[in-house]
Amino acid sequence: MPDELKNMIQRTQRYWYIDGLSEIGAGLMITLMAGWILAAGSFPDGSPYVWLLAIGQPLLILAAWWLVSRGVKALKERLTYPRTGYVSYPRRGKSKRIVAALTAAPLAALIAVFSSFPAAANFTPLLVGIAMGTALFFIGWQMNLLRFMAQAPLLVITGALITWAQVPDPLNMAGMIGAAGLIWMVSGAAVLIHYLRSTAPAAEDEL
């Protein structure tokens, strides 16, 4: 692929992240997941509430994803598009979604198998940090988005620190997931503040 075309594609992909709103939304979602993990771990083993929380988790994730997607879209329509324009992104085809699922499934299975061994359970935050950091770095590398690549080692370091401190379960996983959410929300908020300060709606520019 010619460099000019590649750069144009990367700029188009990066535009979705120009305002930090998607990072804030993703951070809110996984912070909610961290709270869910913490809530489930607060009940004793065998408690019916644990099963209710486990069954309700997929529903919570779907509901949170729907609400966050709607919220990000509404905010972009109000804040982003009047300032720097609208870009229509093609919907991912079925084949791409299948590839993404097949890529994520082995990683999730590896984490689950690794965590099932009592001796290895304490290393789960480190493994999750490495997995999340690797995925974030790859996304940043694909789009040439430097802040994603800079956040990747922070996730690995967070997982390493939680593992080194021997934080007990479920605080270890809730802490790892919650820290990732906090990193994304702080990063997204900083990007949003800079974006709002450096841009203005088209109507104001014309005055």
Offer a quick outline of the entry.
By secondary structure, this protein is mostly helical. The chain is built from 8 helices and no strands.
Structural class: mainly alpha
Helix and strand run = HHHHHHHH
Total strand segments: 0
* Count of spatially separate domains: 1
Task: Draw up the topology in text.
Layout: H1 3-15, H2 21-41, H3 48-84, H4 94-115, H5 124-143, H6 146-164, H7 171-198, H8 202-205
Helix pairs in contact: 2-3, 2-7, 4-5, 5-6, 6-7
Task: Kindly list the characteristics that best describe this protein.
0% strand; 8 helices; mainly alpha
Structure description:
The structure is a single chain. With 207 residues, the protein is an all-alpha fold. The protein has one domain (20-202). Helix content is 79%, strand content 0%. The chain has eight helices and no strands. α2 packs antiparallel against α3 (48-84), α4 packs antiparallel against α5 and α6 runs antiparallel to α7 (171-198). The longest helix is centred in the N-terminal third of the chain and has 37 residues, at 48-84. The N and C termini lie far apart (42 Å). Residues 93-103 have low confidence and may be disordered.
